[in-house]
Amino acid sequence: MTADDSFGRLDDDDYPAYTMGRAAEMLNTTQGFLRAIGEACLITPLRSAGGHRRYSRYQLRIAARARELVDGGTPIEAACRIVILEDQLEEAQRINAEHHRDTKPPGMPPSA
Predict the structure, then answer these.
(1) Is 64 part of a structural domain of the chain?
(2) DSSP codes, 42-109
């Protein structure tokens, strides 16, 4: 991989660009919190060749949402389940919108 390839990946939300320490710092949380949400199967960090956890921007957004819920008093396991369900709902809504857009008869107004 060239330097140009590496820089291009920085725009990729799924590229595991952040170490556990950096991710915890960015989220203003502990590495233990990141391990806990990993154990709850909310996110699965990729591993570097040396076995270190690496996180993507997408995973950091998911972790930040879980942290909001936990900070609000929700138990970590429940927070992880809520975030998973929110993510599934968002994906279902996106698919539904695509389906409606693709199946709309020609000449129908956009709001129908």
Answers:
(1) yes
(2) S---EE-TTS-EEE-HHHHHHHHHHHHHHHTT--HHHHHHHHHHHHHHHHHHHHHHHHHHHHPPTT--
